[in-house]
Write a structure and sequence with these properties.
The protein is mainly α. The protein has 13 helices and no strands. Helix 1 packs parallel to helix 3 and helix 10 packs across helix 11.
Length: 246
């Protein structure tokens, strides 16, 4: 009876996850279509674009990888830049690990870590009590495939649409990143300053004598690590909860 009850609970959690993950998947489909066009411009086939999104559900990381591939960067540069762009998922994984039951096995932990995105992290971590692996699986099942299918359709569209139209649609991905950075920039002068410094540094480095000779991938890695490290050093995030307690 206990096994049957556990199975029923798992099924309920799974289907709840599929229901909550489907709206996220619809949003993923729309965004990843532009990502597929970027993959096509980088020379990836529709299948390669589909597989990359299926194995790496990270818009910023994938776009960085496609940009470096298009620039004929080395494998090492692509790997390092992808690691940097996706570093925040390590923090999300640590946060999720603190919410797991001690009885959660290693296989469940590895499976849950496969597809940690901002949105999937949010709906999982917002649930009360221990994290439920089956809820996570349900949400992943209805969201990540749509991300990969959207990338596939974008890459296919890049093959059949006129070049001018492809170039116009590829701009939509920049709009997605603007939508990511503008809201926090409005709330924080520090974030706004870091963004402006990043833009200016990227432009200057492409013409600076010592940096212009370096590949664009290496320049991006250097600027990303340097600017983020300086921002963390001079403008650390304050622990509001600690301040309130003191």
């Amino acid at each position: 009876m206990s096994g049957l009850k556990l199975s029923e609970e798992n099924s309920m959690s799974f289907f709840e996850g599929t229901r909550n993950g489907f709206p996220i998947g619809l949003g993923y489909f729309a965004v990843s279509f532009s990502l597929g066009i970027a993959a096509h411009k980088a020379g990836l086939s529709p299948f390669q674009a589909f597989l990359s999104s299926l194995l790496c559900s990270a818009s910023a990381g994938q776009y960085a990888a496609y940009t470096l591939i298009d620039a004929m960067s080395s494998y090492a540069q692509v790997a390092v830049m992808t690691l940097i762009a996706n570093a925040r998922y390590m923090l999300m994984s640590c946060a999720m690990s603190q919410r797991m039951s001690p009885k959660t096995g290693i296989l469940h932990r590895l499976a849950m870590s496969f597809a940690i995105t901002d949105e999937l992290f949010a709906i999982n971590i917002s649930r009360p009590g221990y994290l439920d692996p089956y809820y996570c699986y349900g949400a992943v099942l209805t969201s990540v495939p749509l991300w990969a299918i959207g990338t596939l359709f974008g890459a296919i569209a890049g093959n059949v649409m006129p070049i001018r139209l492809v170039s116009a649609l590829s701009v939509a991905l920049y709009g997605m990143f603007l939508a990511v950075i503008i809201p926090p920039a409005k709330k924080s002068r520090v974030i706004l300053s870091v963004i402006l410094v990043s833009f200016a540094s990227s432009f200057i480095s492409s013409y600076a004598p010592m940096l212009s000779g370096i590949s664009s991938g290496t320049r991006t890695i250097i600027l990303t690590v340097t600017i983020s490290a300086l921002a963390a050093l001079f403008f650390p995030v304050k622990n509001e909860q600690k301040e309130e307690n003191t």
